[in-house]
Amino acid sequence: MTSGREKAYAFLKENVLTDPDRQGEFLSEQELANRIGVSRTPIREALLLLAAEDLVRLVPKRGAQIVPLSGREITELMELRGIVERYAAEQVIPGDRDALVAELTGLLERQRTLSGPEHAREFIAVDHLFHATIVAAAGNSLLNRHYDGLRSRQIRAGVVALYNQQGRQESVLTEHRAILAAIASGDRPAAHSAIDSHLETTLKVLLAG
């Protein structure tokens, strides 16, 4: 059974921290407790966990504040993603890629149906899953867990990018198609180039925001 703290932690990470309109906002423990259906104690415990991850800032007499992603943090996130995702592509290309290509194709098709701002969070959740699937296919469980730890920041950054640039969803789909095509054809340089181009474009959109 999921504990109140786990329920609050998951809700905050998936639904509150990813809301572009709430970046920098101070959170009301009572409001959150009412929305989630738990007491304030699990909310406080969840906020302490998020503070340990530098996702919220605990301010005396003010409470917990959602920490907006800084330009430096966004840049470092994209650099780290590039290292991990390029390595993963290198590992999967020499092997049997049929199952991976089929899974990525399905995710890309699912993402294509999620157009419009009302689907922004779900679109980015599938976006993360697309990249995470490539990383998982590399077969390094420690690397996979490390990459999964970036999920909240990736989704926050991705949602903000969609709001920052009109037409970004279609651009993401085009960039994902290029990554998929390179992996499907077994072309390592093309895979590296497609991953780098995708991350560099996302970084530019976020920093221009």
TrEMBL record:
The terms under GO molecular function for this entry are: DNA binding; DNA-binding transcription factor activity
Alphabetized UniProt keyword annotations = DNA-binding, Transcription, Transcription regulation
Domain HTH gntR-type spans what residues?
Answer: 2-69
Domain of life per record: Bacteria
Please give the name of this protein.
Answer: GntR family transcriptional regulator
Task: Note the InterPro entries from the entry.
Answer: GntR_C, TF_FadR/GntR_C, Tscrpt_reg_HTH_GntR, WH-like_DNA-bd_sf, WH_DNA-bd_sf
Pfam families in alphabetical order: FCD, GntR
